[in-house]
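__Record contents__

***
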Amino acid sequence: MAMVSMRQLLESGVHFGHQTKRWNPKMKKYIFGARNGIYIIDLQKTVKLYRTAYKAIVDTVADGGEVLFVGTKRQAQESIKEAAVNSGMHWVNSRWLGGMMTNFDTIKKSINRLHKLEAMKADGTYELLPKKEVLKLEKKREKLEKNLGGVKTMKKPPACIFVIDTRRESIAVAEANKLGIPVVAIVDTNCNPDIVDFVVPGNDDAIRAIKLFCNSISEACVEGKNLREERKQTKDEEEVEVVVDSGKMPIVERVGDAEEAKAEEAKA
């Protein structure tokens, strides 16, 4: 388990919250105190809650689910994409399109349009079209790629979403809540923790803090994938065919078939 340490949290500035005049009273239980007009987050609680969130991500991926990384603020864009790519997951780091989860069928039409334009560019169709038409299509493709590039391989709504800054990504969180999709989020002192399933109190503005959490969640996804493969391999081994000596010639049977046959003979 790639768990973040207290030292890593301190060095990344995860403990720094917002100004005391900009806070959400519901975050009071996660605040250690205030210093120079800035709230200090209780990192002991952060470590404990992050351990729970990390395990939830691992279990989700191990069960075959996919995680959607969401963070459109400037400080988070690069880390969100990098973490998602490294773990083979999906991401949104430019703009959250309303209905991306609640109206996924419509979003899929835009994704299909993107795939079609990519195919046209790759197979040489562009070369057969007027230059003006190509420029128009390319502009459309770039716009779709910017907004949907991170989800163009997503076949269905994710099993879980990981969010940086729930205030900024309020629409994404609201859609997840509506669909019953678990939300794992870094929650700063100015956010509402009640709308998040797995709260991780921490600084959602510092680049180092964002990168630390994104990389760790990415590792949780990889760990979940490895666990899934281990389970699959174990299941395949249990179902392996075995040779049973019938006294005359080898008969190939599956594990469990011999026991069922004996039970039938006993009934007879």
About this structure: Residues 115 and 152 are 8 Å apart (CA to CA).
